[in-house]
Amino acid sequence: MRIKSDKYPGLYYQKGGWLFILCLFLTIRMTINLQAAENNLIYIRVNQMGYVPQDTKVAIAFSNHKIQKKCRLIRESDGKIMFSFRSREIKKHGWANFKYYYELNFSSIKEPGSYHLMIGSSQSKSFAIQQDVYRAVPDSLLVYLRQQRCGYNPFWHEVCHRLDGRTMFAPFPDSAYLDASGGWHDAGDDLKYLLTTSYAVPVMLMAYQTAPGIFADSVNSYGETMPNGLPDILDEAKWGLDWMHKLHPAPDMLFHQVADDRDHIGWKKPGADSSDYGWGSNSYRVVYFADGKPQGLRKYKSNSDGVANLAGRYAAAMALAYRIWEQQEHRNSPFAQKCLKAAGEVYRLGKQKEGVQQGNSYWAPYRYAETTWADDMEWGAAELFKATADSAYLQDAIRYARMAGAESWMGRDTTDHYQYYPFMNMGHYVLYPLVNDQVKTELAGYYRDGIEKCLSVAKENPFKIGVPFIWCSNNLAVALISQCYLYEQMTGDQRYHALMIAARDWLLGRNPWGTTMFVGIPANGEFPEHPHASTYALTGRQITGGMVDGPIYASIYQQLKGIYLSKADEFASYQTDYVVYHDDIADYSSNEPTMDGTAAAIFALTVWAGNQEK
């Protein structure tokens, strides 16, 4: 009689036969050996991009057994052991799910080269130690911004969404035509938001100001390979500026969003967009007016109560552009003057309607739910003061700075989606050199308050990451890097430098999954290969440079509508019931690249690309 074993599926035996006993013994032994082998594995996580020589260099190793062997730093050019050292056990594991965690500190090694770490037979990914290791990274991130362009798109080599758009909520009859073509597709979809663009543009301009010499000139204004005498980052910023000008067609008018979640109907080519907003497929799309009131064309209404969040960032972007293009074009630049005029007009709209204009949805309750605005008006006022020397702007900036204070996501376990956008207050940094010592102390204190809260969180986990894993957690890591860096620049105080490095290294591979969070970076590393994006879904081509949303609370992931995995989870061994990340095209919560997150990362990584790390 053949009987199936319940404990070991697939095993059948002849009742009472010696063959069964032998098979059972071998199966049990094999199972034990496999489990023992898995328990003995050592995983080593490093920053796969690498380190500038003066960096703090700390990798992480983890295992389910104690690590007794020394760690070796191997130079790859000749296999030489450059450093052999004991790892330091980390006692606080927090949400991590392995039994033992260790720090591998090789900060003393500064010799340029390509390296890897080894413990026994376990080996890390390769990484570089090199002064200019980050120099090309910001330009690599710009590649993703170019493939997000709406209008002429150099990835597709065609023009899309020529008919954007038909107006809603404007002070004239609905469905009037407004030329809202251009800008960037927001993420894996084809929506366009002033909410995100109004941060992406000025943060790229800030990156240029921080290290203008690192940016190449390899493309023209259309993103095609053809130098045009302008750094590529300014070409990209101007693509956004031109679209922002279209959304401000008159001194008292501002539009804020093109399309809505009627876009979310599956993968589609931008030039053949099958979504229908009432005018047929691949036709006109709705463009929403910023009236400072709750909006929504169906039951899901926003909680909008003003326009100051958009107006402040808009003004900051345009005032920054004025100063940069005046310099680029040797003064009296028509484009610069146009930007300065728009900055003042839209800033006044913000003062008239203090509050927030949130994103709009149609079918679902998901939207950009920003609730803060004083920080944006501070930034806009500070940039306008620098552009005009009008003291009224400076007084406004100080007032708004005190209103904004240290309000932030920092130290919170969770927030609404994009509630504290743009995740850090650039205004405090811009205002700092313009004010007296008393106000400087206040501004630095606001930054320090948030960073201290992140530091407290970071101390509780082995990766020293101090952000909550809400949707777009990678954006928070980028913001933390930026805030730590700007605080250092303001005060000279480097007490948070290790926290800043830890957040950078988290994004570049020193995390449980051992992957960077940037598509295609570094080219020889482990990075997101299956991003949630139409460009990848329809072509299979790598969308280099895009920063994905990043790890998310398992509790959020499990509650999202329509989410699933399209393939076996390659990171299953590292997932916890607390936080997950999936390199899967179907996971729109953790693996979708975003335009604004990538733009913010350009600024954060410019810190090292410009070799300003102290």
Number of helices: 15
Strand tally = 20
Report on the biggest sheet. 6 strands, mixed
Mean pLDDT: 93
Helix content: 25-40%
- Uncertain spans, ≥5 residues at pLDDT below 50? 1-16, 30-37
Radius of gyration: 26 Å
- Measured by DSSP, the beta-strand proportion falls in 5-15%
- Overall geometry comes to globular
Structural class: alpha+beta
Alpha-carbon distance between the two ends = 76 Å
Explain this structure.
By secondary structure, the chain is an alpha+beta fold. It contains 15 helices and 20 strands. The model is unreliable at 1-16 and 30-37 (pLDDT under 50).
Q: Brief description of this entry?
A:
The chain has helices at residues 18-40, 137-147, 194-210, 232-246, 308-328, 334-352, 374-388, 391-404, 426-431, 437-458, 473-491, 497-507, 534-539, 554-557, 595-609; strands at 2-4, 12-14, 42-45, 50-51, 58-63, 71-75, 81-85, 88-90, 100-105, 113-119, 122-123, 127-129, 152-153, 158-159, 166-168, 192-193, 255-258, 286-289, 552-553, 579-580. It has 614 residues and is of the alpha+beta class.
